[in-house]
């Protein structure tokens, strides 16, 4: 009997019967397509402190004529912790040229919304389930670089989602896996059990690959800020990613995909000025994804030609959030506030505008949902004053996923 099926009639996901053969554990990483990755790098790495884990040059995939037309062809995998990448910036003119999908949704500037599942079996069985059900999958296989196994289903508005397992981890040396260690390219998940990453590394070493030849980020800026006891090059440390916020044509249709196909859980619905917005979660955080009607875009004064409302970066503390806002404004970055009602479960936050006009939400805490699945009643959420105090009272502030490792 196929072990992806449960005796109870559902699917077997690691010994637990579920409605799908996979369970999303968390929002893993996110990517955007930008006009000039080098300019964007100055914002995301230079100001926000994300480290380059690997560059990726799309030039060899382009014809001479295309290279002349599209401009810069190098993108970057960036990270805030040990995951090989938690954020990706790719050149939009290149991705539009190489991927026919983007021509069907020209206002989609997100490159990928990436969700981690629990095992390689869950990737393999999830991919098979999507195909068997006639659900659309753009591609599948394995990231090079990054090493994660994956498949990519788009949502009704064309936003590309990635379900993955097994992303490479970068340790204290800061070195990514050498390119020569990626011996094979996969166009779909493997049919059966695959060798462990430890064995892959042993095989690479036996083949003479220099394991110290991977990419290592170089910090060009002096470490001059005391960030809660650690000297860093900027007064903040990103310790988490998400939520993602999307403008969609039909909130109900988008919800069907994310809740029905991907299995995200409904947390809350908010109506603001007649617009209904829906918030879904992957784990215990109030929401990993917010869905907003596209009619809200102009009302909020956000970038008029992108369906990405915002992407979030969680900072390590409220103090860092205050310092980050002041630092970014001192560097000429526009910082916006959006109505608190549109980010339920999050009190203090600000939206920094990147060089392409994308709104990047900075925050330090998000409400956690317990066993009964109920969010905190709106009436019990603290209002955020126009002028932020130096110190706040919040006994729920540091609940949820904990950042592992030192600030660096």
From TrEMBL:
Species this protein is from: Pigmentiphaga litoralis
Protein name: Catechol 2,3-dioxygenase-like lactoylglutathione lyase family enzyme
Top-level taxon of the source organism: Bacteria
Keyword field: Dioxygenase, Lyase, Oxidoreductase
Gene Ontology MF term list: dioxygenase activity; lyase activity
InterPro entries, alphabetized: Glyas_Bleomycin-R_OHBP_Dase, Glyas_Fos-R_dOase_dom, GlyoxalaseI/FosfomycinResist, VOC_core
A Pfam family the protein falls into: Glyoxalase
Domain VOC: 26-166, 240-365
């Amino acid at each position: 009997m196929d072990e992806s099926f449960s005796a109870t009639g559902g699917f077997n996901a690691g010994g637990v019967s579920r409605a799908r053969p996979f369970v999303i554990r968390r929002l893993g990483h996110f990517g955007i397509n930008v006009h000039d990755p080098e300019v964007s790098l100055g914002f995301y790495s230079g100001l926000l402190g994300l480290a380059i884990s690997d560059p990726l040059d799309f030039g060899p995939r382009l014809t001479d004529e295309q290279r002349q037309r599209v401009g810069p062809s190098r993108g970057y995998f960036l990270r805030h912790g040990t995951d090989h990448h938690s954020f990706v910036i790719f050149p939009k003119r290149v991705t539009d040229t190489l991927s026919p999908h983007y021509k069907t949704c020209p206002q989609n500037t997100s490159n990928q919304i990436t969700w981690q599942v629990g095992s390689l079996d869950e990737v393999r069985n999830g991919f098979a389930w999507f195909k068997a059900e006639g659900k659309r999958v753009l591609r599948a296989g394995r990231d090079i670089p990054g090493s994660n196994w994956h498949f990519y289903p788009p949502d009704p508005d064309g936003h590309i989602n990635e379900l993955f397992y097994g992303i490479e981890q970068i340790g204290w040396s800061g070195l990514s896996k050498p390119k020569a260690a990626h011996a094979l390219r996969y166009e779909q998940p493997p049919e059966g059990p695959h060798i462990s990453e430890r064995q892959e590394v042993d095989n690479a070493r036996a083949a003479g690959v220099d394991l110290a030849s991977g990419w290592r980020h170089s910090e060009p800026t002096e470490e001059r800020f005391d960030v809660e006891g650690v000297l860093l090059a900027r007064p903040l440390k990103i310790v988490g990613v998400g939520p993602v916020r999307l403008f969609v044509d039909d909130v109900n249709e988008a919800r069907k995909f994310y809740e029905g196909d991907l299995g995200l859980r409904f947390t809350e619905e908010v109506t603001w000025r007649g617009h209904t917005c829906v918030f879904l979660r992957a784990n215990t955080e109030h929401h990993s994804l917010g869905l907003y009607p596209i009619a809200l875009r102009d009302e909020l004064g956000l970038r008029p030609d992108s369906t990405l409302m915002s992407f979030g970066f969680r900072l390590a503390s409220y103090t860092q959030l205050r310092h980050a806002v002041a630092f970014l404004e001192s560097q000429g970055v526009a910082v916006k506030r959006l109505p608190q009602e549109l980010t339920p479960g999050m009190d203090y936050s600000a939206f920094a505008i990147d060089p392409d006009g994308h709104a990047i939400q900075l925050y330090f805490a998000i409400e956690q949902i317990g066993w009964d699945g109920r969010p905190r009643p709106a009436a019990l959420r603290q209002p955020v004053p126009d002028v932020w105090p130096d110190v706040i009272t919040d006994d729920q502030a540091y609940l949820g996923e904990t950042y592992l490792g030192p600030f660096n």
